[in-house]
Design goal:
heterodimer; A: alpha+beta; Alpha-Beta Plaits; 3 domains; four-stranded antiparallel β-sheet; 9 helices; 4 strands; about 10% strand; B: about 200 residues; mainly alpha; Rna Polymerase Sigma Factor, Chain: A; Arc Repressor Mutant, subunit A; 2 domains; 10 helices; about 70% helix
Chain lengths: ~220, ~200
């Protein structure tokens, strides 16, 4: 079977036979040819020799300094944050567009923005209450603790979770993403802008966890 | 389920990330997860760097190109369609960076009126000295090959790439991969022979 034409064909396969990246059919052809041809086996030995030296050559090249990673991470910090899989889920409606905009913000920016929004809403509420009730004896502002008012959860989504599935899970729990992903991969969700009872929080978390294959973990933020 | 099948909270994030496949990491990077970026970098930077350095032969330029490759990962992760392995994607981007740098270097050399140094296949005292150590001689002669030949040898011998992967990384048809590999090996044999080492092939 090892006529000159076959020999060339098989010889072309030898480097891939040597590195193990060959189909089962070609592997069998090479094996059969090697048994019949000592010359082919000798040529395979030459390839093995070259391969060994190529590996040694590359291993001797060393490693990059930490500068390469430092430069990379510094550049990434200046890049616009990505949340494509979240943003792509939302293509309709004002609230959806708002969600996409929030998803594009960095966690820190988002946290500040969320805090600012909560503070504005609280302030607006205070002003309205003051306007309705007339002059108040107590100062008409909210304390800083109002920023953290509400009930929150920390959730890990499965990496393969589709944005539409995530949106469905969030809707079922009446939750919305306010921050994330954090460095740990967790997202911070707002379950409610008011403090919920333990039972209600447990119910919401159960709704999130019920999204099998989408939500990996869901726990109340302490 | 790949990655994060276990409860994340309370676990070291690194432990969770180690279980993630390359594709999982790229998906997380597309979502802006910088920790996933670090994990992918930790897994692949060495091989990508060596591929770059073997083509560029300059550590600083190779490090710059390495950063650029992974910055492109950050920017393009959302468009990665998983038609190839992540490692193939990385090497293809690295190759583009390396060849772009090589072209700039050649243009700069021409602008300076300096002729592009041709690969010297003549007998070399350094190789002569190494004749007693055949392995060392083969390594030295590999270094004397053209970048086109070096990259195909590196991809097949060191990166264990298949014909299809080399075709994808280098951007040539699969049949050309085999031809180019043959010519790279033939050239290596000729350089070795010119330096007094005849292995009886081709």
């Amino acid at each position: 079977m090892t006529n000159p034409e076959n020999m060339t064909d098989i010889e072309d396969l030898l480097p891939f036979y040597a590195n193990g990246r060959i189909s089962a059919a070609d592997h069998a052809r090479v094996e059969a040819a090697l048994k019949q041809s000592p010359e082919l086996a000798r040529r395979l030995a030459l390839i093995e020799e070259e391969r060994m030296e190529a590996i040694a050559l590359n291993e001797a090249l060393g490693a990059p300094s930490s500068r390469a990673l430092d430069v990379l991470m510094a550049k990434i910090e200046t890049e616009p944050k990505q949340a494509a899989h979240v943003a792509s889920a939302v293509k309709q409606g004002l609230m959806d567009r708002l969600g996409a905009m929030l998803a594009a913000l960095s966690p820190r920016t988002l946290a500040y923005a969320s805090a600012a929004c909560v503070a504005i809403i609280a302030l607006q509420g205070a002003v309205m209450t003051g306007a309705l009730n007339g002059p108040a004896t107590a100062p008409s502002y909210q304390t800083a603790s109002a920023i953290e008012a509400g009930s929150y959860a920390l959730v890990a989504f499965a990496p393969e979770a589709k944005a539409a599935e995530m949106a469905t899970a969030l809707k079922a729990a009446g939750a919305s993403i306010v921050e994330g992903p954090r460095a740990s991969g967790l997202y911070r969700l707002r379950l409610s802008s008011t403090a919920l009872s333990k039972e209600e929080i447990a119910k919401r978390l159960a709704a999130l966890r019920a999204a099998k294959g989408v939500v990996i973990s869901a726990d109340a933020e302490q | 389920m790949p990655c994060c099948a276990t409860k994340v909270q309370g676990l070291e994030a690194g432990v969770t990330m180690q279980a993630a496949s390359d594709e999982d990491l790229v998906r997380r990077i597309a979502g802006g997860d910088s920790l996933a970026m670090r994990s992918l970098y930790a897994r692949h930077h060495l091989r990508v760097f060596r591929f770059l350095q073997h083509l560029l032969r300059d550590e600083a330029t190779s490090e710059d190109a390495l950063s650029e490759v992974f910055l492109d990962v950050w920017r393009q992760a959302g468009r990665f369609e998983e038609r190839s392995a992540v490692s193939t994607w990385l090497l293809a981007m690295a190759r583009n960076k390396a060849w772009s740098a090589l072209r700039k270097r050649r243009e700069a050399a021409l602008d300076d009126g300096v002729a592009e140094a041709m690969e010297d296949e003549a007998d070399d005292p350094e190789v002569q000295i190494q004749k007693s150590d055949k392995g060392a001689a083969i390594r030295l002669c590999m270094e004397k090959l053209s970048p086109e030949h070096r990259e195909v040898l590196d991809l097949v011998y060191y990166h264990d790439s298949s014909v299809e992967e080399v075709a994808m990384i280098v951007g040539i048809p699969e049949n050309t991969v085999k031809t180019r590999l043959f010519h790279a090996r033939k050239k290596l044999a000729e350089v070795l022979k010119a330096n007094g080492i005849d292995r009886g092939w081709p």
